[in-house]
Amino acid sequence: MSALPRRIAFSARDGLRLSALEWPGDPAAVPLLCLPGIARTALDFTAIGLRHRGRRRVVALDYAGHGESGRAADPARYRVEVAIRDLLDAMAALHLHRVALLGTSFGGILGMALGLLRPGALAALALNDTGPRLEPLGLDAVRDFIGRDPAFASIEDAAAFLRRILPPLGIPEQGWRAVAETTYARGADGRLHPRWDIRILEAMPREAGPTELWPLFHALPGIPLLLIRGEESLVLSAETAHRMREARPDMDLVSLPGIGHAPTLLEPPCLTALDRWLARLA
Length: 282
Hints:
By secondary structure, the protein is an alpha/beta fold. Helix content is 33%, strand content 20%.
């Protein structure tokens, strides 16, 4: 079986081209659907896809305006409610009728929304540094990053920039080049630009206080839940993680010392926890 994923293109209901990566696997097993953060792409899940391919189908989605998916004429097309609609369209187009969903940050919010809208489609949910309360300080940092296009001349410049501005992620010095390569792509001008449409910032809500999504979390069905949290995260607080465990004591929790928003999922405790979470599927 090839280690390379298959790139799949399909259309949302409004005709915008969407894209995903797929690692094939046992069609009898519940597939794993991976949703990245708001300024990330399907490439983030390459290691997860390689780890689980063959045993189960793994699909990672590029949202509208991200990666290989199309860019919208109107940035309002990037609103969260439209992203939820795109998720439903993607699941229909890719024949993902019931999934284990692994969502980083924004991807986890979409996963919680799916649990409310289509509870029968959600077999398990893993939330990577996200939950039903998002702290404004962390969201402000995310917004600042999303809206930037530094147009780097070299991958070395991009790696140095990311190493300087991103929160602590436990990435070794030699690993930052790979992070830069999954964050920026070379454009027609020869410079490196974000793999997302920076106008996504215009569609992000800006609330005065924390973003509260508790109704979504409380509506989740009785499925295997996993929460991964970086202990230095400015987006998901320790208090919110504690409240989530109180509401769902069956939810597994992985807490990563010295790691901010969001864990790469390559940390050994994360890989072990994800293996255990998937093993709980019927």
